[in-house]
Design a protein that fits this description.
Layout (H helix, E strand, L loop, with lengths): L8 E5 L11 H15 L3 E6 L14 E4 L4 H11 L3 E3 L4 H13 L2 H4 L3 E2 L4 H8 L1 H10 L7 E4 L2 H12 L4 E5 L9 E3 L2 H14 L5 E5 L5 E9 L5 E9 L12 E3 L6 H18 L4 E9 L6 E7 L4 H10 L3 H9 L26 E7 L20 E7 L2 H11 L20 H9 L5 H10 L4 H8 L3 H18 L8 H9 L4 H8 L3 H10 L4 E5 L13 E6 L12 E5 L10 H16 L3 E6 L14 E4 L4 H11 L3 E3 L5 H12 L9 H8 L1 H11 L6 E4 L2 H11 L3 E5 L9 E3 L2 H14 L5 E5 L5 E9 L4 E9 L12 E3 L6 H17 L4 E10 L2 E8 L6 H8 L3 H9 L18 E7 L20 E7 L2 H12 L8 E5 L5 H13 L3 E4 L1 H8 L6 E2 L10 H6 L5 E4 L8 H12 L3 E3 L2 H17 L6 H6 L2
Parallel strand pairs: 1-2, 1-4, 2-3, 4-5, 18-21, 19-20, 19-22, 20-21, 34-35, 34-37, 35-36, 37-38
Antiparallel strand pairs: 6-9, 7-8, 7-9, 10-11, 10-13, 11-12, 12-15, 13-14, 15-16, 17-18, 23-26, 24-25, 24-26, 27-28, 27-30, 28-29, 29-32, 30-31, 32-33
Helix pairs in contact: 1-10, 1-11, 5-6, 13-14, 14-16, 15-16, 18-19, 20-29, 25-26, 30-35, 31-35
Length: 1075
């Protein structure tokens, strides 16, 4: 059937900001869908709240709204754009839930909008736990014993009489990444988890089910069209047994331990499931569990949409799931659509792969002190790396070194290198699921444990354990040799098992260069193979490569000049989608002017690793040897390292030493901006100030330096991203408590100590320069005073309280710094302004995480311009010589994962903790700020009671804020101290007990929904225990909370604007027309 002609305009809802459980894989799927629908002639209207995405670039949809993902905003957009259809399955759980709300509230019916791809009935059948269970039982599928409950008494009844024994799994309905779920091992934990799950579920519904701990877990990524043709795109097997959320588990494609008969049974069950649920067209992800002792197979759950695993399955097979899903939704069938990679086979041809893909999650527990790193059914990872190899051994070792945790393979990070002989620690490391469990497996085998012993402890399938043991045995054999004694056969076996040259150098006692030379002398050469979706049966036309050994090389030569772009690797806090955005734009810009672009990255979630973003894609670890091999085999003329964040920057100097032409700002100048002494000299020559600072190589040096400067001081390790290990301390005792963490954040590197400028304004400036011309892309004033990491701070563009004189001083300083550092491309400068004096905090001559935000605000892609400048063009020839100051306000707000890490302090500090960002745009600053809060969630309240508890230094501003809130109709709640102060200024106050002094206290009020806003600023460096209890409850119950007095002030202004004017929606295309 050809495409539908009764549809003209299609609405796509994005997934919102990057959060744990819903990351940039939905930017990838949304971007594909927009391209697919527009090439079919449909008008596409896109709504998303985050600017750090390719999908929200104005060229991808006909009309693009960067607006809050709320029902109110969506109805305004639907009313304005009058779409014929809504495609709800490409924006993750967020889009699915919003689409269901639009349907249940009658908004789709009111505006005559049809839901395509999946109907509301199918979505409910797939998402509502009890409905799905009954549907599976109806078609004869086995499911875990379970009950869906809406209150605690029913939960206890089901636990006692239906399930009968602990442990029991708790799964709240309609939540993301297993949020609020877990495994209860006793009655007390069960009660706590059920109560929490009922709180978190938007439908106040929780599924409790028998625990399948230790069972094997599989996923099937499948597609269906309106002709009822079904195909399996990819089977995925979890390395970890049941009990670990699939997003946190190591996963392997294709499934490795299923027999052909078991695979066919699971395939048939998947098709029966998608048909019964009623997903008419598109992709679905179905999870199964198999009892390893008797083979019992149960269906766990189904996602009736493009899921997190869809991006992995797409990258693993080369099959563009989101693109095909979008085309199926508008009427095509699978046999009518061509496979882009082979250009011969239809999409109904199931992919077949002749290699092994391994995905390993990336965690950042170090950002959340006090949190438990045990992996459970609630997802905690912030990113993932993927690797491809001819064998599982090769694939898993490549994936481990792609994680960027200083692991060169199964040997793990440095702390795991030497044999650990404490068997109690080893057994605990193997039995407890953590991000480090895979490294403990090696120590089990080094200590003589058998595969059976390790299986009893871990319940990881024996086939995987045998593979691990063989890697360890090979490591032991290699260590018995040296460079002169190792034979060709053993060296080849090591390379085919994923041992990098760098790791072999460590094991053999040689250098990387010596191992590489020896390997090449034996004819053991790195060969690049194509990902072709069909196990080599048809020729692949899209150059998408992975490295291996012992096979023919499939690299295709060309005469074009080639530029390599190094991506950012796995997402993590401090290095996320913003850098991938810059890499993608660099590729687009250089392709447009005739270069052949070569992308190197290891992150399956991103647009940069889509098969058609660059001329060639290499899915490889971002290590020196891997990058050099690609650069040399491809014959690249240059490489861009400044767009992928800290990962490629850390390689820049070594690459340059090996003859790689780093285009743009030189590695020497990048290092000069990081080196304290060189940078101080540059600033002195420019007559620019920085806060008084010292450098320390030891704790004692650090103590002396801090006392010489005078407290408070800011401590930060050098060469880290995302403020890792940064602290503000107010005295020597505070400093002693955290100094070890600071030095540990960058081992072997010095610690930088700066005078901390209290109550200073901070300003981020993004520039672009070609050495002849420097243009400021944007100035972003932080809402919070100094002390909050720029990645976490709310920001306003253009600056809203700075004088024209200060702004001109900033402009002059920025131009001077660009010239002094010989910047060619992008540069980010962080300033502090105190008492009308300008201080330089730091300069980064590279792409910053604010580049996408600034680009959206000014309607011009800075990354594209920078890539062309780096390739030799001039800004005057690109017609970009004037700073663009938008005639409206753009507010950036950050989104935090505190709800995932109970026990961790909830605070803003110099260490970055946010996972994503949103954007609020409006001509009124108050409305723009209010929109940013709606988008970040929870929204600013427009009525109710506000609880105020602030540190002494904030009390005078708190009086002003309380007065404004009172005038806006809010009630004010406070404990005795703050309450007496507010009463003395004639503000009516409702008193509440301190947490330590009786009930009812503010936590009782939060739980009873009697507080709509909390303003709580900490007394010290970190919130005290009772402050953190209040914040934890506020986060859990989605109560608006402000932890800095300046953010509270902005919030009150936002509430005032919202109550006075309301808000309107406007596309970014229309905003650009106003510039």
């Amino acid at each position: 059937m050809p495409k539908r002609t009764d549809l003209e305009t299609i609405l796509i809802i994005g997934s919102g900001p990057i959060v744990i459980g819903q990351a940039c894989e939905f930017d990838y799927s949304g971007t594909q869908a927009c391209k697919a629908l527009r090439e079919e002639g449909y008008k596409v209207v896109l709504v998303n709240s985050t600017p750090a995405t390719i999908m929200t670039d104005p060229e991808y949809a006909d009309v693009t709204y960067i607006e809050p993902l709320t029902i109110e905003a969506l109805e305004k957009i639907i009313s304005k754009e009058k779409p014929d259809a809504l495609l709800p399955t490409l924006g993750g759980q967020t889009a699915l839930n919003l689409s269901m709300d639009l349907n249940s509230q009658g908004i789709l019916k009111k505006y005559n909008v049809e839901m395509i791809g999946a109907k509301p009935e199918a979505i409910e059948k797939g998402e509502a736990r009890e409905v799905f269970k009954q549907a599976m039982l109806k078609i004869g599928m086995d499911v875990a014993r379970s009950a869906t409950i809406n209150n605690l008494p029913d939960a206890l009844e089901a636990a006692d009489n239906l399930i009968g024994e602990f442990p029991i799994i708790i799964r709240p309905s309609y939540t993301l990444g297993g949020s609020g779920g877990g495994i209860a091992y006793n009655r007390e934990e069960f009660i706590s988890m059920v109560e929490n799950g009922l709180d978190i579920s938007p439908t106040h519904e929780v599924l409790i089910e028998e625990c399948l701990l230790g069972w094997k877990e599989y996923e099937m990524e499948i597609m269906r069209d309106h002709k009822d043709q079904c195909v399996v795109i990819c089977s995925i097997e979890n390395f970890d047994p049941m009990g670990v959320h699939t997003g946190d588990s190591i996963t392997i494609a294709p499934a490795m331990t299923l027999t052909d008969k078991e695979y066919q049974l699971m395939r048939d069950a998947s098709f029966a499931c998608i048909r019964e649920v009623g997903v008419e067209t598109g992709g679905s992800n179905i999870q199964f569990s198999v009892n390893p002792t008797n083979g019992r197979m149960v269906v766990i759950e189904m996602n009736p949409r493009v899921s997190r695993s869809s991006a992995l399955a797409s990258k693993a097979t080369g099959f563009p799931i989101a693109k095909i899903a979008a085309k199926l939704a508008v009427g095509y069938s699978l046999d009518e659509l061509q496979n882009d990679i082979t250009r011969e086979t239809p999409a109904s041809f199931e992919p077949s792969i002749d290699y092994v893909v391994t995905k390993i999650p990336r965690f950042t527990f170090e950002k959340f002190p006090g949190s438990d790193n045990t992996l459970t059914s609630a997802m905690k990872s912030v990113g993932e790396a993927m690797a491809i190899g001819r064998t599982f051994k090769e694939s898993v070792q490549k994936a481990l070194r792609s994680l960027e945790i200083s692991a060169k393979g199964l040997v793990g990070p440095p702390k795991f290198h030497n044999k650990i002989e404490d068997m109690q620690s080893v057994r605990e490391g193997i039995s407890r699921p953590t991000p480090e469990r895979i490294f403990w497996l090696r120590h089990g085998f080094l200590n003589g444990l058998s595969v059976e012993d390790v299986f009893d402890l871990s319940k990881i399938d024996p086939w995987f354990l045998q593979q691990m043991k063989e890697i360890v045995d090979l490591e032991i054999e290699i260590k018995e040799n040296n460079l002169s004694s190792i034979n060709k056969e053993l060296l080849r076996k090591a390379k085919e098992s994923g041992f990098s040259d760098s790791l072999l150098a460590d094991l053999l006692g040689g250098t990387l260069e010596a191992v590489t030379a020896l390997r090449k002398s034996h004819g053991i050469l790195t060969q690049f193979r194509l990902v072709d979706t069909c196990a080599g049966e048809f020729e692949a036309y899209t150059p998408y490569y992975y490295s291996s050994y012992g096979l023919e090389n499939e690299i295709k030569d060309s005469d074009k000049k080639k530029i390599m772009i190094l991506g950012g690797g796995p997402n993590r806090i401090g290095q996320g989608i913003e850098f991938d955005y810059c890499c993608v734009h660099a590729s687009f810009a250089l392709r447009d002017v005739g270069y052949e672009t070569v992308m190197v990255n290891s992150n399956p979630e991103t647009v940069s690793t889509d098969y058609d973003t660059s001329d060639k894609l290499f899915f490889e670890p971002l290590t020196l040897e891997d990058v050099l091999e690609i650069y040399n085999q491809e014959g690249c003329t240059g490489a861009i390292v400044q767009f992928g964040g800290q990962t490629p920057l850390n390689l820049a100097t070594q690459l340059a030493e090996k003859g790689v032409n780093i285009i743009g700002t030189s590695p020497e100048m990048i290092d000069a901006a990081e080196d304290r002494d060189q940078f101080r000299t540059i600033l002195e020559n420019l007559n620019l100030k920085q806060p008084e600072n010292r450098i320390a190589h030891s704790r004692d040096e650090a103590y002396h330096a801090a006392e010489a400067i005078g407290f408070p001081v800011l401590l930060r390790p050098s060469f880290v991203l995302g403020g890792r290990g940064m602290f503000i301390v107010y005295n020597l005792d505070e400093m002693r408590a955290i100094i070890t963490d600071v030095f540990d954040a960058a081992p072997g590197k010095p610690v930088l100590i700066d005078k901390f400028l209290e109550d200073a304004y901070e300003l981020d400036v993004d520039c672009i320069s070609d050495q002849e011309t420097t243009v400021i892309g944007g100035m972003l004033q932080h809402v919070e005073f100094a002390g909050v990491h720029s990645g976490d701070a709310a920001m306003v563009m253009p600056p809203h309280t700075l004088s024209p004189e200060i702004i001109e001083t900033v402009r002059t300083a920025s131009h001077a710094l660009a010239k002094a550092l010989k910047v060619i491309g992008l540069m980010n400068i962080q300033y502090a302004i105190k008492d009308d004096e300008l201080f330089i905090i730091e300069v980064n001559p590279r792409a910053s995480r604010t580049v996408p935000f600034v680009s959206k605000a000014i309607g011009c892609s800075l990354a594209k311009l920078a890539a062309r400048v780096m390739a030799g063009e001039k800004l005057k020839d690109l017609n970009f010589t004037q700073e663009i100051i938008p005639p409206y306000y753009a507010v950036k707000e950050s989104v935090f994962p505190f709800n995932r890490f109970p026990g961790s302090p909830i605070m803003l500090s110099p260490e970055m903790r946010s996972t994503g960002e949103v954007m609020g745009i409006d001509e009124d600053l108050g409305v723009a700020f209010a929109k940013s809060q709606m988008a970040a969630s929870p929204s600013l309240p427009e009525s109710g009671d506000a609880f105020i508890s602030v540190k002494d230094a904030d009390k005078s501003r708190a009086v002003t804020i309380a007065k404004k809130l009172s005038d806006l109709g809010f009630g004010i709640i406070a404990t005795a101290g703050t309450g007496n102060l507010l009463k003395s200024h004639d503000i009516e106050v409702k008193s509440v007990c301190r947490l330590s002094e009786g009930r009812p206290n503010v936590i009782d009020l939060i739980k009873n929904n009697q507080v709509s806003m909390i303003i709580n600023t900490p007394q010290g460096t970190i919130p005290r225990q009772n402050e953190n209890q209040i914040r934890t409850e506020a986060v859990k119950h989605k109560v608006c909370i402000m932890t800095t007095i300046s953010a509270a002030s902005a919030a009150v202004d936002g509430i005032g604007s919202l109550k006075e004017k309301g808000f309107e929606v406007c596309s970014i295309q229309d905003y650009s027309d106003k510039i």
